[in-house]
Amino acid sequence: MDKKLQKLLGYLTNFTTKNPFDRDFTKYPHYNVRFARNNIPGVQVGLTANDYKNAIKFARNLLPKIVNKLPDKIVNEEITTFMFSAFKNPHIKDMSGLVGKFTAPNLQIQNAVIKLYNINIDISIDTDTFSLYTSQDFYEKFVKNVNGLPSHFKKTFTYIFDNSKNNIFVVLVLKNIPVYEPKPEVALNIIKNRMNDFCAVLGIMFQTYYQPIHLGNYIKESLEAVCLFDKRMTPLKLSDIGRPYNPFYHEPVEITKKDIETNKFIINLLSDNDNLLNKTLLSIRWLNKSILSENDEDRILQATISLETLLSRHQKSDNAAGLGVSLAETFAFLTESDLQKRLYVFKFLKNIYNIRSEIVHSGQAAITTDVYYHFYDILKDGILKIIDLIQANKWKNIDEIYKYVEQLKFQ
Predict the structure, then answer these.
(1) Which of 38, 42, 237, 390 has the most CB atoms at less than 10 Å from its CB?
(2) Predicted confidence (pLDDT) per residue in 117-127, tens digit
(3) Angle between the 275-292 and 369-393 helix axes, to the nearest 10 degrees?
(4) pTM for the whole structure
(5) What number of H helices and E strands is found in the chain?
(6) Radius of gyration (Cα) for the chain, nearest Å?
(7) Are strands 253-255 and 119-121 parallel, antiparallel or unpaired?
């Protein structure tokens, strides 16, 4: 047996031989049976929670880096299934069966092409992570004169993207989407997540509430119109042509090339794997979720998650009240230089955490929509200021932010 496979299977524990009838599923959340005949209990093997983490980490280090673009749930399930299969089947001698699942043609990088309704752009826009085309530009560049395109593809794509048929949408290209053929639904889930991040990042750049709200709604309306193209933008798979224009939305969201260029650092959050910038993207994601929620209690809770995601140093806290004071103070120092403004932000955020506590413990609180929108404004403007500080000071982790705040306190 290959040494790598031997090490992977070494994380399994044979606990049947120790106590055949006592299956401690709490201790062994992952378990399997090697054989079971004639009513004789089979050989039970299990993975403790700690061994599971170590096994997953070991196996993932042997897989192509592209695997990191897939949802953890999918990858971890495949690793666990392979481990138990290798334990049961003596003909499996190495890791090739697992590695092969995550190499071409099973796993490929493609581009997702989506129609977005009710968005206006002044000119086609291209970035490292996405492109926005006018419908006419996209049709002329990628459909009209593509050689060798099957006739049924040509006919369908012409119907979808020909500007003469419909000029009320733009075409969004999300780049480098991992498509995992054993589970095709993975690509759509990844596309949805990318769309949400795209919406969140653009939404924070807008000055009015309605724009991110409408942008989020337009994206929900467009998810049925997804087509896959390869990295050279040759069509691969067709989909539904998307929902028809919804006349309920009257004011389109305006996105200009200047918007994108001015906010290039924010746009780069979509592709940067830096730990601190990833925290920032998660924070923006939660802030965007809050404004798309339908009641004020959910909005407040999700907006406080946004703040905690941005500035918390630890994943867990047993003292929510103390955490609220600490975050309010840190946020105030980072976002305001005037003493009176700092005190105002500090006191306002402390009050928000009192409201949060009421919601958590009683399920409701006496709040108004205006309070949430003011909280949203403070958070959005503050996140933008913190992004500027991260960019200017080239911070890489949260500890550098807190070191900066300590220096401000003792100036």
Answers:
(1) 390
(2) 777 888 888 88
(3) 160
(4) 0.77
(5) 16, 11
(6) 26
(7) parallel
